[in-house]
């Protein structure tokens, strides 16, 4: 996989971002299109699919379980669904690379199958907490072996599941989705209550495929035993990938960039809300709904930013966008304070520490706290920072180059391929002076 190849970014200082850019497809929706398409009756035609390592890991895992999948080619995938009970045992352990969404959602879905599967991942995934899914799945009747709550996970065969009523201890769409997918196979009703809204792509796609989902505020329920009907899925551009360009434009004078056909699901737009609170000039146009998901073109014109106290209700709505937002905070006038974001410590890396360390190397006063960070805006210098094999850390520091006093070297950027395979090309096209060098 990509993490075996060592790649660094070298970013020259200065520049601005301009033009019209379409970033790759939404990672969360791409995963779900393969999972639900595989369980559906009929052929699901997907367009705009993310051809990044994470979504491809999900695709490969369903192929290994006997699903015929054509593509991806130019973002087009045809998933020939096998129905709710048509998956077959994979010949080997299923390797899911860097992908937390794959392992957590699959562990729910596989709990309902009559065969055993072992799910493995790379070094980062093998260190990530899984009790958040294995504990409630055990309450439903699943039997899962783990390495002290971490991958590999072995999901045992054929344990009859029963629906549970469960309140999530943390705002996690992955845990919610995992339990809903197990709930499709459970006897009776599975009800999940989240402490705050999280991305609802699973609920939307289930409904779009004809499965009844009951949503009452922060509580979602499904009854087991239904079926899914194949559909067309147009995957919007990923707002999490668009974020790097939004932040880049927001910090560099003279920038004016439009990100086209971006998903603006209300559970994903924390980055727009937070940047606007900081003073960014963001406007939306061409708003429409495609395949049950709202999309728009997002235009950002440079305007000076100011530091803010980030409202805690925005945290789950911007959970993957904080590394980039910390770069915006570093370029803002005054102090930015983030609290209530301890989940950032258990992402692909400890994103609070990784960003605090890198920003300090670049001369910014950034102090990590247990559940967030305090950043005093300043002048970004130059230096060598570590991505910790985390795609979003790598791309965030790349954008810092636009405001840097000198060259920034970012180490271990191969994992950018998990979510944004053509990042360097698109960033260059938009105006960032970035090169990828093999080590
Ligand atoms: C995701 C949910 C989020 C997010 C991840 C993708 C999903 O994780 O960070 O990148 O597709 O459901 P949590 O639900 O664990 O917060």
CATH class of the largest domain: Alpha Beta
Largest sheet: 4 strands, mixed
Low-confidence stretches: none
Mean pLDDT: 97
Number of domains: 2
Bound molecules: shikimate-3-phosphate
Tell me the β content.
Answer: 25-35%
What helical percentage do the residues reach?
A: 25-40%
Give the strand line-up of the largest sheet: 21-22-1-23
Overall form: globular
Alpha-beta content class = alpha+beta
List the helices and strands and how they pair.
Layout: E1 7-11, E2 18-21, H1 27-39, E3 41-47, H2 53-64, E4 68-73, E5 76-82, E6 94-95, H3 100-111, E7 117-120, H4 123-126, H5 131-140, E8 144-147, E9 150-155, E10 165-167, H6 173-183, E11 189-193, H7 201-208, E12 214-216, E13 219-223, E14 232-234, H8 239-251, E15 256-263, H9 270-277, E16 281-290, E17 293-301, H10 322-330, E18 335-338, H11 351-361, E19 365-369, E20 372-376, E21 383-386, H12 391-400, E22 408-411, H13 423-430, E23 434-438
Parallel strand pairs: 2-15, 3-14, 6-7, 10-11, 21-22
Antiparallel strand pairs: 1-22, 1-23, 3-5, 4-5, 7-9, 8-9, 11-13, 12-13, 15-17, 16-17, 18-20, 19-20
The structure holds shikimate-3-phosphate (S3P).
